[in-house]
Amino acid sequence: MRRVVACLLALAAGPVSVAAQPNPESIRVAVVRDGPEVLVEVHGRWTMSDAQSGQPLQEGRRLRQTAVRAGDGGLRFGDEVLPVAGVRLEPGREASIDVNGSRLRGRLEIVRQDDGRLLVINHVALEDYLRGVLSKEAPDYWPEEALKAIAVAARTYAVYQRFTKEQQAYDVSGDVMSQDYGGHAAEKDATDRAVAATAGWIVLEGSRLFPTFYHSTCGGRTEHGLAMGTFEVRPLRGNIECTFCQASPFFSWQRRLTRADVNWALRQSRFGPVGPVRGMRVVKRTPSGRAEQIAIIGDRTLTLSGYEFRSVFGFETIRSPLLTIVPLADAFVVQGHGWGHGVGLCQWGAAELARRGWTAAQILAYYYPGATLADIARLTTEPIDVARGGP
């Protein structure tokens, strides 16, 4: 509790100086990363231009659902081939865009990649992006202060990606590998209110912008940021005791993997088979107790990280690296706690703290020790240090 009080005093001290770098008012979201085809519709007026030159190509009062594919020498837009590598689709003021049946705010960029598949990027205002994220990342019936805390974490994470991905084609993907994003179609009143109530709030470590990772359920204790890369910042050092997420349906779970299941999953993965599986065990753990290395023993021994192990069997099958493996005669029982990587804010923990009367600021202080609240507007006027530490 002493740590909580210290963090609350830091938060109460007010915004800190942060740095002038990319303008964070908008964000680029990859809503499709490798699609052979996308279906696009615009409800209202629209214009289309060459994504590289800006040269106008077409305009209209409404665009009925149209299939877009890569074509020889350009993009096939319906029955017409446009001799360009990419297009920008801009809806009018009162119009909106649907991509594969999902309605989005902002404008769209469709790019033909070298492999002939499509990359579709939604350029959208940051606050509108968050409205489409928060409703997917947290139930709208959760307490308001929990939703506000998660909104601040999601905003800070997005801004961090904006500042570190400027030389790449997009800042975030629209799935759970970044933040789940449902666009305009996913927005809900309660989560919209939480975004609006925290508009412009981010958290910093001193004058440093860092990635505010968060997850569904920590299972009892949070993990160090090293699980997500080389992040050595105080708010991500983890090892924070969290008994608050026990109401989560994912706090405890169990999966049975037969030896045939293990063989099949390995054959489908980039790691390949190990021959008849004779054993599987955790060989190294992190200080929080999560599996850091797992050995699968057959004709050869394959050692996987906790993340790789989850990726082989599926992130919904193996929900967390906080697990133990119990061998049976013909199978392995994986017993685990939590859902997600365990770094940063525990969402189910935040919900319980809010039910106990904690404010969003207190929740953020607990899960990101040493962090301070800051106004995003200062990012465009003062220097900022950006924590580096990719995976």
Account of the 3D structure:
The longest helix is centred in the middle third of the chain and has 21 residues. Strand 18 and strand 19 form a beta hairpin. 23% of the residues lie in helices and 32% in strands. The N terminus is likely disordered. The protein has a 7-stranded mixed beta sheet. A 6-stranded antiparallel beta sheet has the order 7-6-5-2-9-10, with no helix packed on it. A 3-stranded antiparallel beta sheet has the order 17-22-21. The protein folds into 3 domains: 184 residues, no CATH class; 78 residues, no CATH class; 86 residues, no CATH class. It contains 8 helices and 25 strands. Helix 2 crosses helix 3, helix 2 packs across helix 4 and helix 3 runs antiparallel to helix 7. The protein is an alpha+beta fold and 391 residues long.
Note the main attributes of this structure.
single chain; 391 residues; alpha+beta; 3 domains; 7-stranded mixed sheet; 6-stranded antiparallel sheet; 8 helices; 25 strands; 32% strand; globular
